[in-house]
Amino acid sequence: MKKIFIMLTAAWSALSAFSSAPVLSPAPSAGNVNVDTRLSIMFDSDVTLGDKGMIRIIDAETDICVDSLDLSIPAGPTESTKLPKPPYTLRPYIYDQPRQTNRTAKPGTPSGTAAPTTDEYQLTIIGGFTDGFHFYPVITDGRKAEIYPHNNMLDYGHTYYVTVDPEVFSTSKGRFKGISKKDGWRFSVKPSAPSAENRRLIVAADGSGDFNTLQGAMDFIPDFNDDHWTVFVKNGDYEELVYFRNKRNVTIEGESRDGVYVHYANNEVFNPHPDDVSTNEWLGTFPSRRAAFMMDNCTGMVLRNFTVATTLVGQAEGLLIMGERNQVLDVTIKGSGDALQVNGSTYFDNCVIEGHGDSVLGRGPSFFKNCTLKSRNAFVWIRNAASSHGNVFVGCTFIGIGNRSVLARTNDKYPHSEMVLIDCRLDNVPSEGWSGIDKDNCDYIHYWELGSTDLNGSPVDFSKRAYGSRRLDPVADKAIIDAYRNPAFVLGWKPE
């Protein structure tokens, strides 16, 4: 009897070493799952991610593994490169290439003149960019683990099952026994893709729409499209790295500005430029990978009514725009060293832009109306050439955080920098206003102001403004003022 008791005690001890059964999503045997679904596991106690083991998604009919995540591979670099900044490519980047996915190309395959991306970190192809992005295969938060398969690996009309090795997770209550085929984590993807007839897609994080992710919806829309599409994003938390290119005439509209939160922990360290090619700014250069939300080589786009953010500090934009004739309306943009980068004509209305410094970066031209900017250091570093306007702000509010929040900074590399303020409110902006103007080379600098006041409406003191800047005169400069109030004059087209 004593022997039996000891055996039962040992068996109970072995069972209690494991956590109770976790809650899985998609739920076992779920149907009509979206093709871009995430996988999530809710444990009964706080979960810790391991540094080994595999997560596999397997076609239930063929038993072929269609995607796997190796937890022994680090997500991405954590230290900046020590190499000097490389030159820009001498051969323009070619955007008109067949769109590739993780199924048709190996992540890290060069799409331009850059060397292959090393595979020492996690890599996935997003939006056809074969050079790939570093990403987090699993993100844990308390008791929840969110699993991020490689993009574009599942098919409509197929059923899959998921296996998870025991080493992948542990919990505060005990070890994780893993998930095997016999545990039955199976789900079926919707029989077919959404209809393209209405050119309207719904994104819902809970799976109730056409897609779970914004990226999934943008991947569905054809490149270089002439017809207008609408992507409606329901309220929800969208922790995803968004990159799309070659889109035309698409409106992305959130259900509510604060309710739709698109974000990712990305920056220049985690997704750096290649060792041999610089990125950003110049037309035709190698695409950047460091922002949370990247809109590349796009025309006629409208972003409206949501919040976008990067949650890492560093060179890290919340939003990066490359293209022409784009509009951003009622959007909150949060970043770090550069919250917003804009290279190409863009109109902003009623936006909030929050950053740590150079909060608006780029070559313009950009027109900002009724926007609020918050920055710890310089609000703007505009780098426009003589061939285009820079950044124009009408009726905007600038709120400095700290003691170094000048309106803009520059250096002698950008002698045609242009930032014009008309009827703006300034709070905690240093008396000199502007920084870095070369006194021997400022003939073409347009650091101009008209009607700047404090938050109470009292005129600011212009007496200590930096040499080379200019206070516009309402009478003598009326023609200039009238021109710069007009978005079409700055952008070359009239926003609708």
What does this structure look like?
The protein is mainly beta and about 500 residues long. The longest helix is centred in the N-terminal third of the chain and has 15 residues, at about 1-15. The strands form 7 sheets. It has a 15-stranded parallel beta sheet that branches. An 8-stranded parallel beta sheet has the order 17-20-23-26-28-30-33-36, with no helix packed on it. A 5-stranded mixed beta sheet has the order 2-14-11-5-6, with no helix packed on it. The protein contains 4 helices and 39 strands.
Quick overview:
With 496 residues, this protein is mainly β. It has 4 helices and 39 strands.
Topology, element by element:
Layout: H1 2-16, E1 23-25, E2 30-33, E3 39-42, E4 47-49, E5 54-59, E6 65-70, E7 124-126, E8 129-133, E9 138-141, E10 144-147, E11 159-164, E12 169-171, E13 174-175, E14 186-189, E15 200-203, H2 214-220, E16 229-233, E17 236-239, E18 242-245, E19 250-254, E20 260-264, E21 293-299, E22 302-304, E23 307-310, E24 319-324, E25 326-329, E26 332-334, E27 340-349, E28 352-355, E29 360-369, E30 372-375, E31 380-382, E32 391-394, E33 397-400, E34 408-409, E35 418-422, E36 425-427, E37 434-435, E38 446-450, E39 470-471, H3 478-484, H4 487-491
Parallel strand pairs: 2-14, 15-16, 16-19, 17-20, 18-21, 19-22, 20-23, 21-24, 22-25, 23-26, 24-27, 25-27, 26-28, 27-29, 28-30, 29-31, 29-32, 30-33, 32-35, 33-36, 34-37, 35-38, 38-39
Antiparallel strand pairs: 1-3, 3-10, 4-12, 5-6, 5-11, 7-8, 9-10, 11-14, 12-13
